[in-house]
## 1
Amino acid sequence: MKKSISVLVGDNTFGFGTQIAEYLKGRGINAYTRRNDCESILSDIVESAPDVVLVYAGSHHGDTEMLLNQIYKINDKIKIIVVSPYEFENMKETFQSDAVPDFLFMPVTPFDIYCCITRNVVAGDDITPFEERIMEFLLKNHIKPHLKGYMYIMYAIECCIYDRTFAGNILGRLYPKIAEKYKTTSSNVERSIRHVVEMYCDNTKFNNKNTTLKLTNSELIVKFADEFCYKYEILFKSK
């Protein structure tokens, strides 16, 4: 996983583009704005090659279809997300392209856009609504997608929710299962999750001056799984 996702927000108006960029920055994403015109957006793509380009169709100064095609020609690895007002709701049928993973029709929230980005860039296209809830839960605990070990601890929580016995055998069962899914080693999973644990503990101590919090990997995984289940009223399942 890349250290930080880079997102070009193709609009620099205060009411839309800058608000979205500031929200994404607060979520650990390297977001920045450019003028909403073809020349400015295409020039930045050539120079910076962002992971994601957010195109706001509602105020685009130029032809939207031409812009999408040009972006794809310059770099077909870039994910394009189009935000459109309701009167453009036929755009998805008009612009069928592998380069456009999502059309978001307004009204949308910054969190909607964040989830769309993480779904397409961090976690892949097959992320489920349940996994999105775990992502939201981690964000509220200051665990951001760019952290090494983010996807590992996300999957660890999911495993412990679906099968409580994983919580009792983190080293022997859970790490190998995560390693198998992500095609890595158990030791790498352990080290990466430890990095998340250290970041969480450091952040907690920073926000609570008198706290000297120290947790092991297994303690944090079980803590998060318990708190998630309590928040969403989910009972642990045993196979």
## 2
Amino acid sequence: MPDLTTQFLNLTLSNPFVLASGILGSSPELIARCAQNGAGVVTCKSCGVTAREGHANPVAVDWGHGVINAIGLTNPGADEGVHLLQQTKALLAPLGVPLIASIFAPTVSQYGEVAAIISQGEPDLIEVNISCPNVADEFGTPFAGTPESAAAVTEAVKKATTIPISVKLAPNVPNIACIAEAVVSAGADAITAINTMPGMLIDARAGRAVLSNRTGGLSGSAIKLIALHCVAEIATRVNVPIIGTGGVSSGEDAAEMIMAGASAIGIGTAVWYHGAAVFARMRDELLGFMAEQRYPDLAAMRGVALR
């Protein structure tokens, strides 16, 4: 039987599948359900310094080839986020599944502030979301847009916490590998790639955008090839673990992401479609693929498409 054990920084995961931020990550019980169903590590929904209501409905639509969403970073604020982390960790402890906290902020200094607060909840990793594509009207251009701004946020977070961090990058940039190099030089311990791709869905008969925010982030199978390309570009330029995220919905998709250089695999839209049980299904599919192709473990498969 192939070995799915994954070493990710100081964490030993039973398998490489990660519940991505924003999907079933809003309550301890839902997060724990994903762990119970086979996720190797789970991520809470992104949290800011203060509470945020997000955008008005409709905020998420299945358009046939994936999901487009403009949730708008709805969250209860960092202080309440600490309590949610503590409650979630208590549920995860018997399962031995690590917990990732996700953070965002409108300014560099507030990234440091929210990182310091959320660290009180003692997550195993902090994911620094600098790439949400659907709050530009409120926050301006995402910090993932340039190496300089991405590095500035990374430095602020590293100064505020001793917990390892993974910086979540955007796909819609001229050179994602250059930005990856900048955040790693600034202290990032890992990288999450990618966030959703900006998009717009129009109802031609109504003559208007479907989402209340007009634009949103595209996820699901439609962006898998973009995610694979970005992960491969990053893997050839930096030597830190990568959580490859985007369009993975089967065990073979997961194998492709590992072959592109990812150490772990973020699962989001597939959970939207199939529920928490998708983790066990994809785990079994990946095991079957590895046995068929005679890969004894993930290390033997990692990065083979780059050689």
